[in-house]
Automatic annotation (TrEMBL):
InterPro entries linked to this entry: MoCofactor_Util/Proc (IPR052698), XdhC_CoxI (IPR003777), XdhC_Rossmann_dom (IPR027051)
Every XdhC- CoxI domain range: 16-77
UniProt protein name: Carbon monoxide dehydrogenase accessory protein
Domain (XdhC Rossmann) ranges: 125-226
UniProt signal peptide: none
Origin: domain of life: Bacteria
Source species of the chain: Paractinoplanes rishiriensis
Entry-linked Gene3D superfamilies: NAD(P)-binding Rossmann-like Domain
Pfam family, one: XdhC_C
Length: 314
């Protein structure tokens, strides 16, 4: 990374803000970008840095948002109109951009997604300690129960369970795993006066039935259910595109929920709107600086002012 982009990437990582690092790996004249030029694209579609002119940038922004959704790296090949296409290859996306000045450019896109947060109440118990240890191995960020967690495990074994459950519910945690027998788990919830919606978020006697007996086996059972819930049901509160069991993999799971990162930055970054330029056919990210025009009451968005002016003239 260039120095300024590297500093920005560190800042975004510290903020748990999902972003994509884009690096120019090949450029064919005439083009304004050079190999090594780089930028970061945030989850709101904004870009910081330089990877080419406005037309190439539009293609990069649209493709980058796609990588945040699936968590996979991507080689983006932006070719001028009329250029012979590269053969299809796994992990590569070819975009024909009629706005380019004639050169071609290849840009490597790497999504950087925050690790999912897992709250653990009761780390002083053998089961709680085992959950925290295994969760760290699975690439969760283990923390005290609180806001922005993908899940909370309550392993107090009779100590302060009701308070831990209530705190997690008030923090908006979507999946709360209570370590308890079926009988005691039901008794705990029955005595809390939970609403139907609240009770649906609490899983008494948590874990997949694998015949677990030891603390480590119980931890494996519980975390298996949490991983399944994140992957299959997209449970990741406030997660702004993030999270994932095994950085990239969990990123795929969390990003799929688009914008609510398993413990990502404050809930907020809405999924950016995209539109198709009616002149060149490019997909563009709609933002405050995106050229647009209103014709007969219909809004149209463009990759650059050139396409907008041609559309208006026609």
């Amino acid at each position: 990374m260039t120095t300024s982009i590297a500093e920005r990437a560190r800042e975004l990582t510290g903020l748990r803000r999902p972003f994509v690092h884009a690096t120019v790996v090949r450029a064919q004249a005439p083009t304004s970008a050079q190999p090594g030029d780089d930028a970061v694209i945030l989850d709101d579609g904004s870009i910081e840095g330089f990877v080419g002119g406005v037309c190439a940038e539009s293609s990069v922004r649209a493709a980058a948002l796609g990588t945040l959704r699936d968590g996979a790296t991507l080689l983006l090949r932006v070719l001028p109109d009329g250029s012979a296409e590269f053969p299809e290859a796994p992990g590569a996306l070819v975009v024909v951009n009629p706005c380019l000045s004639g050169g071609a450019i290849e840009i490597f896109l790497r999504p950087v997604l925050p690790r999912p947060l897992l709250g653990v109440a009761g780390t002083g118990t053998p089961i709680g300690a085992a959950v925290a240890e295994l969760a760290a191995f699975l690439d969760f960020e283990v923390t005290a129960p609180g806001e922005r967690a993908s899940a909370v495990v309550v392993a107090g074994l009779g100590r302060d369970e009701e308070r831990a459950i209530r705190d997690a519910l008030e923090a908006g945690v979507p999946f709360i795993a209570l370590i308890a027998s079926r009988t005691r788990g039901a008794a705990v919830l029955d005595g809390m006066g939970l609403t139907e919606a609240e009770r649906a978020r609490v899983h008494p006697h948590a874990g997949i039935d694998i015949g677990a007996r030891t603390p480590k086996e119980i931890a494996l059972s519980v975390l298996s259910e949490i991983v399944r819930n994140i992957r299959q049901e997209g449970a990741a509160p406030g997660h702004e595109a993030g999270g994932g069991i095994g950085r990239e993999a969990a990123g795929r799971a969390a990003s799929g929920a688009a914008g609510r990162a398993a413990g990502g930055h404050a809930a907020g970054a809405a999924v950016p709107r995209q539109a198709v330029d009616p002149v060149c056919g490019m997909t563009v990210v709609v933002g405050a600086d995106t050229p647009h025009a209103v014709v007969d009451g219909v809004e149209h968005w463009f990759c650059c002012v050139g396409c907008r002016d041609r559309f208006a003239a026609a």
